[in-house]
Amino acid sequence: MRTTKYDMLDVIRERFANRALKQDNQVSDQTLEALVEAAAQAPSCFNEQPWRFLIAKGERKDRLLATLTPVNQEWAGRAAALVLTLAKKTFTYNGNNNPWHLSDAGCAAGFFMLEAQRRGLTAHPMAGFDKKAARAAFLIPEEFDIVHVMAVGEPGDLELLSEKNQARNHPGTRKAIEEFIL
Ligand SMILES: Cc1cc2nc3c(=O)[nH]c(=O)nc-3n(C[C@H](O)[C@H](O)[C@H](O)COP(=O)(O)O)c2cc1C
Q: Which of 51, 124, 130, 169 should be mutated for ligand 1, with most atoms under 8 A from CB?
């Protein structure tokens, strides 16, 4: 767990971009639905709720996995599910562009990750994948931006990672608080 100057939710301190996932990972459809429900509690501009989560298990997981970079494939293949996060580009109420769709989807993904952490699971976001290939693989309409892929699963089995990934499998450092406050 990270050390922080102030007290805060344990899940915030505990979460990190964990790449060590158990072999034969199992996360039920019900749990994945609960993570989506947690994400859906996030705020959004005009309450648009522009986020969508394409949950890929089984054959769909293989299809999404194939779009990941080799470095990500090495560990993310052990996830119980890969989740493709999408964001609708326009407001439904008037059809105008929604400049906050990515911000809202990022916030929702944060809620998803923290609820996963609370349940003892890892939800690790990745930008290392081919967006065009993912769009083509699932026929994602252009009205949605592709945000990222999350690897969701039970943590464990550090020794299954390559030496390089083992060495970097720890919480990332943070800048000093003063650097964030303007
Ligand atoms: C949008 C986004 C894309 C990321 N892409 C990758 C990725 O492709 N592969 C990976 O292993 N980690 C990826 N990460 C994880 C970050 O490297 C990680 O969150 C960061 O180094 C901070 O570490 P921490 O989450 O453990 O605090 C990504 C994180 C975000 C938010």
A: 124
Say which amino acid occupies 122: T
- pLDDT tens per residue across span 150-173: 999 999 989 999 998 899 999 999
| Domain tally, the chain | 1
Tell the residue nearest (CA) to atom 27 of ligand 1: 172
pLDDT in tens, 52-68: 999 999 999 999 999 99
- Rounded mean pLDDT of 125-140? 98
CA of 97 to the centre of ligand 1 (A): 28
**Among protein residues, the one whose CA lies closest to atom 16 of ligand 1:** 17
Distance 126 CA to ligand 1 centre (A): 6
| Cβ < 6 A, ligand 1 pocket | 16-17, 19, 72, 125-128, 148, 171-172
- For residue 7, with 0-12 CB atoms within 10 Å meaning exposed, 13-18 middle and 19 or more buried, which class applies? exposed
Q: Is residue 84 part of a domain?
A: yes
Determine, yes or no, domain membership for 173. no
Residue 52's DSSP bridge partners are 86
In a domain, 119, yes or no: yes
Prediction pTM value: 0.97
- Supply the range of the domain harboring residue 62: 10-155
CB 134 within 8 A of CB 146: yes
